[in-house]
Specification:
Elements lengths: L1 H16 L1 H9 L5 H20 L8 H25 L2 H8 L2 H13 L5 H18 L8 H23 L6 H23 L8 H28 L2 H7 L2 H13 L6 H20 L16
Helix pairs in contact: 1-10, 1-12, 2-10, 2-12, 3-4, 3-9, 3-10, 4-5, 4-8, 4-9, 5-7, 5-8, 6-8, 6-11, 7-13, 9-10, 11-13
Membrane topology: Multi-pass membrane protein
Protein name: Probable blue pigment (Indigoidine) exporter
Main location: membrane
Length: 295
């Protein structure tokens, strides 16, 4: 039951991330991806630092900035580039490749065995996301494809390394360190690459508060808690809940249509997530004791 609770709680994070598509398109000013990413990460990280009152030791600074770059700075920038240059379905399908990448990276960096069931679950999940989101008018852009694959690789690397490097602090402190580091990396990029934001409306501020407090601070604390307790492959499969929730919100809030093929894709994704949790559960280790030899 403890593992089931950990899975359900960790799944809340990508489910909430699915709302980011709706919030960004409906409530945030357009064409400021790096600035919005910085404003999402840095205030959330500073807030959590104030709550936890925990700073990373000097020996951990390199790891923290690397993790903050993989999990936030590089990942979010590449995600926005892919979203701008590709249809949303293609970008999301490329993002779902991270589950397969996690399996391979965990083998190399953590020594986790490659399980056939986990590979099959990841592959079927990618297929389900494609059914769910890719339409007949999908076009392919080389830069967008490279950004989508790079974003998936960045998230996969951050996921595995966050499990490999576990500091002796609570998950909330670990989240604060990474969000702050990622925000500090994003801030100069935003100042260099993008013009100043226009005056923000109440709707803009509400959307930013949701992305920062809920979509970053709260959900990533849950995510890193799950990474500390579950196999990285199991956690990465849960990320496929994000596009499913995005489609459900688009249908419920924006009145977007939901086809039979999309319903099939959602069912495949949910089934793959369930299968991935079973395949990535190593189960209890059985030991066989041998009787001592008589003296």
């Amino acid at each position: 039951m403890s593992r089931t609770r950990d899975i359900l709680l960790t799944a809340l994070a990508p489910a909430v991330w699915g709302s980011s598509y709706l919030v960004t398109t409906e409530l945030m000013p357009a064409s400021y991806p790096v600035t919005i990413a910085a404003l999402r990460a840095l205030p959330a990280g500073l807030l959590l630092l104030a709550v936890t009152r925990s700073l990373p030791p000097r020996a951990w600074l390199g790891r923290v900035f690397l993790l903050g770059s993989f999990n936030f700075a590089l990942f979010w920038v590449l995600l926005f580039v892919a979203a701008y240059r590709l249809p949303g379905g293609v970008a999301a399908t490329l993002g779902s490749l991270q589950a397969m990448m996690v399996i391979l990276m965990a083998r190399g960096w953590l020594g986790t065995p490659v399980r056939a069931g986990a590979v099959a679950a990841a592959a079927s999940g990618i297929l389900g996301v494609a059914f769910l989101l890719i339409g007949p008018d999908a076009t392919l852009d080389p830069v967008g494809i490279a950004a989508g694959v790079g974003g998936a690789a960045s998230m996969a690397a951050g996921t595995v390394l966050s499990r490999k490097w576990q500091p002796p602090v609570p998950a909330l402190s670990f989240t604060a360190w990474q969000l702050t580091a990622g925000g500090l990396v994003l801030l100069p990029l935003a100042l260099i690459l993008e013009p100043p934001l226009p005056p923000l409306t109440l709707a803009n501020l509400g959307g930013l508060a949701w992305l920062c407090l809920v979509g970053a601070a709260a959900t990533y604390a849950i995510w890193f808690r799950g990474l500390a307790r579950l196999d990285p492959g199991a956690v990465s499969m849960l990320a496929m809940m994000s596009p499913v929730m995005a489609v459900i919100l688009g249908w419920a809030v924006l009145g977007q249509s939901l086809s039979l093929l999309q319903g099939l894709g959602a069912a495949i994704v949910l089934g793959s997530v369930w299968a991935g949790q079973r395949a990535n559960n190593p189960g209890p280790v059985c030991t066989v004791s041998t009787p001592a030899k008589p003296a």
